[in-house]
Amino acid sequence: MNPVGFIRSATTIARAPLVPEIALHLATELTPLWEATEAFLAEQNIEPPFWAFAWPGSQALARLVLDEPQRVAGKRVLDFAAGCGLAAIACALSGAAWVEAAEIDPLAAEATLLNAALNGVAVAALARDVVGEAGRWDTVLAGDVCYEAPMTGHILPWLRSLARAGAEVIIADPGRAYLPKQGMAPIATYDVPVTRELEDRETRVVMLYRVAG
After folding, report:
1. Which of 45, 66, 107, 172 suits a disulfide with 57, CB 3.0-4.6 Å?
2. Contacts of 76 (CB under 8 A, 6+ apart)
3. Would you say 111 and 139 are in contact if contact means Cβ atoms under 8 Å apart?
4. CB atoms within 10 A of CB 84
5. Are 102 and 170 contacting, i.e. CB atoms less than 8 angstroms apart?
6. What is the pLDDT of residue 68?
């Protein structure tokens, strides 16, 4: 399977409701991925295409950065669990010195590179689990990452260690049960339009929190 060819053929160029400034290769009702089942994807040896959707957490982070570019201008930024790379692209458009987008799915990394090129910016895509790596970032953005207890336990100590080392760490949370509120300072709230194919409602309230060390 050619990753770039697959992404281009299975998605269409669209824009997230909260971030219309940025074009992305996304799954919509007009694309094959929209109707693809997990069983079909497994037969094709394709991971669930989380990278093909602009998730509410990423939309909120991107909106924050575009509205307040001083948060990332001239800084080294990591978009952690980046999905389609939406927040990373917003950082690059807002003047970040350099931007890395980390995802464990190689297709997500390829989608991020395609999306960055589509918007005329440079983003480095890391197709690996970066948890535990030494901090080299001034700002770390993490979308909807506390959706399961094991995931939270895996990533949160590392994110807190980055905060202790001086990075500004911001988590976007759409109301997941596993985000501990202790050591989380709310900084913004967004009402993000969503589709009922992905969520059980038409709008998801996303809170952005600064992580304490």
Report:
1. 172
2. 96, 97, 98, 136, 137, 138, 139
3. no
4. 30
5. no
6. 98
Residue that has been written with the tokens 């970032």 in this structure? 137
Instruction: Look up residue 42 and give its two tokens.
Output: 């497994």
* Residue at token pair 């800084």: 75
How far is it, in rounded angstroms, from Cα 123 to Cα 211?
24
pLDDT tens digits along 127-169: 999 999 999 999 999 988 877 777 888 999 999 999 999 999 9
Structure tokens at 3: 């990753």
The label of the residue with tokens 């590392």 reads: 158
Look at the block and give the residue holding tokens 């049960």: 177
Summarised one tens digit per residue, pLDDT across range 166-212 is 999 999 998 877 788 889 999 999 999 886 555 566 788 999 999 99
